[in-house]
């Protein structure tokens, strides 16, 4: 049943301001009395943890030239207010998704129509290169058109500020307020082509050089190290092979069936390296070639999936927490061996990632900083703590950042770092996998699992909302026989001790997240996704690993424990 409000919203898109194709499509939805009309017009598309993402189509709740044009008009107005005496410059990149190139040009047109200088990549480029380019080109702002690993019908719009990181408070709220104050009719689409400069190789060279410099650590054994790489039809094909080549890796085998950028992602169900199926083709090729490592990146090349050989020679996919802790451990080792750790350094992660990052920080006597989900919060730390040195950090969702030359998760440099770790380990008679087990022996065996429940549409959003309400109003007291000690509610910014009733304030920006901590070291977090119609539950358990030979048995114990908890919470 189409609501009268949604119908009236749709009719406003029938005026002559909107192009003929748009008017035709809106009229079709009205004539069909389609539920799609409700979905398209019941709200304005919102910014989430990774910018604005949504299904492409007509309507206020869809990605199209008008919603992105309105964003850009509001952003143009805000830039003029924020930098009144400066030449305004923005840089724009886009990925392989359908309409990304044309939408990027629309965004460039609106900026230029507002008198703002635009650097527009002439072809698709990675998100980390866009982040790098903001500071490299001296821009106040950057935009990338991408929906990361979402399905083919999605696209998105991520905004970066002058530091190269995604927008955070107070800029994000002020920009959104500026956008919401506008009507669609205020968008200036009349491009000033003299204000648009196309860029490519010169910026590519600068980024490649910076990536090699920050991701190389003098690893030995490169000639004897074999890599299978897949870009999953995305943007990393434009840069990662060259980065690996310049760093000395010549034994790189590309999955040819997935080389060509393609917004349909024809060979995978989902172009997400978090999903084992996405790397199946690469892992098969690795077995055929007896390769040492598989690397796979998502469409905009900010997420990295890695598969390595276990102690039995079988290729296994590591999760984001595992790659993050070993990469961080490696960086900490390098900093320690060169006497660069003096108490003024820190590593970082997010509240839903493995607690092992905190253990690493204690072991190496560096600070550990924790942020909300979303890499923009880790990038914000670099602004907030300029007197400290950022070594590296990541999040469980397959993202990592090496140093601060890029201010977002960077699968390009992180891929190189992973190769450095693995090649060096192999040359020394070890492996990436064996080094990970050594890490567990020293700092504790942590095991994590993620459950994502998809709830689409208006009813799905209401269901997710109710699930979070129920968890708040009826807090869990016991999990798998272990008492819950603390509940952290990031919406109210309160940490509650369930045993004493004492409350502490959480000094992290408010967010719709709940985290439970039990007596036996179990951690459970619940949060609605900021970019997808999902509610996510993150599980972390802790054990000990006295000897690497006990790893399989100890992991089984922790996995069984998580299975019991999932059943107890009725999430399976």
UniProtKB/TrEMBL annotation:
It comes from the Bacteria. One of its GO terms (molecular function) is magnesium ion binding. Keywords: Isomerase, Magnesium, Metal-binding, Phosphoprotein. Its cofactor is Mg(2+). One of its GO terms (biological process) is carbohydrate metabolic process. Residues 46-184, 207-313, 319-439 form the Alpha-D-phosphohexomutase alpha/beta/alpha domain. InterPro entries: A-D-PHexomutase_a/b/a-I, A-D-PHexomutase_a/b/a-I/II/III, A-D-PHexomutase_a/b/a-II, A-D-PHexomutase_a/b/a-III, A-D-PHexomutase_C_sf, A-D-PHexomutase_CS, Alpha-D-phosphohexomutase_SF. CDD domains: PGM2. Belongs to the phosphohexose mutase family. PANTHER family: PHOSPHOGLUCOMUTASE 2B-RELATED, PHOSPHOMANNOMUTASE 45A. This is Phosphomannomutase. It comes from Galbibacter orientalis DSM 19592. The lineage of its organism: Bacteria, Pseudomonadati, Bacteroidota, Flavobacteriia, Flavobacteriales.
């Amino acid at each position: 049943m189409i609501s009268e409000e949604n119908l009236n919203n749709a009719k406003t898109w029938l005026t002559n301001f909107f192009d003929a194709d748009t008017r035709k499509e809106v009229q079709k939805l009205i004539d069909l009395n389609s539920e799609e009309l409700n979905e398209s017009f019941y709200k304005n598309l919102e910014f989430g943890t990774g910018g604005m993402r949504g299904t492409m189509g007509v309507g206020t709740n869809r990605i199209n030239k008008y919603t992105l044009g309105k964003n850009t008009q509001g952003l143009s107005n805000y830039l003029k207010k924020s930098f009144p005496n400066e030449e305004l410059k923005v840089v724009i990149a886009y990925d392989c998704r359908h309409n990304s190139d044309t939408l990027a040009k629309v965004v460039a047109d609106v900026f230029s129509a507002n008198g703002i200088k635009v650097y527009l990549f002439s072809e698709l480029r990675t998100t980390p290169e866009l982040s790098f380019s903001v500071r490299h080109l001296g821009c106040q702002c950057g935009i990338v058109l991408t929906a990361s690993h979402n399905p083919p019908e999605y696209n998105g719009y991520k905004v970066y500020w002058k530091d190269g990181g995604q927008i955070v408070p107070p800029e994000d709220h002020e920009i959104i307020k500026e956008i919401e104050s506008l009507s669609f009719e205020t968008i200036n689409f009349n491009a000033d082509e003299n204000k648009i400069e196309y860029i490519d190789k010169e910026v590519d060279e600068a980024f490649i050089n910076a990536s090699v410099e920050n991701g190389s650590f003098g690893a030995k054994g490169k000639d004897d190290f074999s890599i299978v790489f897949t870009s999953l039809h995305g943007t990393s094909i434009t840069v990662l092979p060259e980065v690996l080549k310049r760093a000395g890796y010549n034994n790189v085998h590309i999955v040819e069936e997935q080389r060509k950028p393609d917004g349909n992602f024809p060979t995978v169900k989902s172009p997400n390296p978090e999903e084992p199926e996405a790397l199946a083709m690469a892992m098969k090729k690795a077995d055929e070639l007896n390769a040492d490592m598989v690397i796979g990146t998502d469409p905009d090349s900010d997420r990295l999936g890695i598969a390595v050989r276990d102690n039995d020679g079988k290729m296994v996919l590591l999760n984001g927490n595992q790659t993050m802790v070993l990469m961080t451990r490696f960086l900490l080792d390098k900093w320690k061996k060169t006497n660069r750790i003096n108490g003024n350094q820190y590593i970082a992660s997010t509240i839903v990632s493995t607690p092992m990052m905190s253990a690493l920080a204690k072991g190496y006597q560096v600070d550990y900083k924790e942020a909300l989900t979303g890499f923009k919060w880790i990038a914000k730390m670099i602004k907030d703590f300029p007197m400290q040195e950022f070594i590296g950090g990541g999040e469980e969702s397959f993202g990592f950042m090496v140093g601060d030359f890029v201010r977002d998760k960077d699968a390009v440099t992180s891929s190189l770092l992973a190769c450095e770790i693995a090649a060096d380990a192999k040359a020394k008679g070890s492996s990436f996998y064996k080094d990970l087990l050594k890490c567990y022996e020293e700092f504790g065996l942590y095991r994590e699992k993620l459950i994502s429940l998809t709830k689409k549409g208006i009813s799905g959003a209401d269901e997710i909302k109710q699930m979070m309400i129920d968890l708040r109003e009826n807090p869990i007291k016991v999990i798998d026989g272990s008492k819950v000690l603390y509940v952290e509610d990031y919406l109210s910014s309160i940490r509650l001790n369930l045993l004493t009733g004492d409350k502490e304030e959480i000094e992290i920006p408010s967010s719709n997240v709940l985290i439970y901590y039990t007596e036996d070291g179990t951690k459970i977090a619940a949060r609605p996704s900021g970019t997808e119609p999902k509610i996510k539950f993150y599980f972390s358990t802790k054990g000990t690993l006295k000897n690497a030979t006990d790893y399989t048995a100890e992991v089984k114990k922790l996995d069984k424990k998580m299975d019991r908890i999932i059943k107890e919470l009725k999430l399976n």
